[in-house]
Design brief:
4% helix; single chain; 6-stranded antiparallel barrel; mainly beta; 168 residues
Length: 168
């Protein structure tokens, strides 16, 4: 989880809105290899008024409606910190009009000189085999938010009947 108080490098998938959805009339941008696509953006629940940031995208397929992309998010001066995590949506705007949606898959903090700041990956405890002296597992059925749980534990008269073979 990263708080956007400075520039962030992001990687994800961009989906350009069609003209019928209010997106660009000319369709997805087709920048040449010398230039990045630059625009404004915000992260919901913020709006263009209280959470605007600059965005520069590169390494995306020109004229593709949906494509992987890399970019840099730069918060506007005076805007509060925003939480940027994998899975969040960045609304790409031209002015205040949404033209695309970037689903974030990776986030890296950038130092003032533009180099990524690498952080240590979280350490998780490995799964272990139950010890001999561990208490026996519960015999209750798993919780399910449906009628399946009641069927799991219910007792029916047919449960006591001896199994019968199909006389076919």
């Amino acid at each position: 989880m990263v708080m956007m108080t400075g520039s962030l490098a992001v990687r994800g998938t961009v989906l350009w809105l069609t003209p019928q959805q209010g997106g660009r009339v000319s369709g997805p941008p087709a920048p040449d290899y010398d230039y990045d696509y630059t625009a404004t953006a915000y992260l919901p629940p913020r709006t263009p008024d209280d959470g605007q940031a600059g965005i520069a995208l590169r390494r995306f397929a020109p004229s593709a409606w949906r494509t992987p992309a890399e970019g840099i998010l730069v918060p506007a001066k005076g805007n509060r910190a925003q939480q940027v995590i994998p899975g969040c949506i960045v609304v790409i705007t031209e002015g205040v009009r949404p033209v695309g949606l970037l689903t974030v898959e990776e986030v890296h903090v950038l130092a003032p000189d533009g180099t990524p700041i690498l952080t240590a990956a979280p350490v998780y405890e490995a799964a272990r085999e139950p010890a001999v002296d561990d208490p026996a597992p519960a015999t209750e059925p798993p919780y399910r938010h449906s009628t399946a749980a009641s069927r799991w534990t219910s007792k029916h008269a047919s449960d006591d009947a001896p199994p019968q073979t199909a006389g076919v």
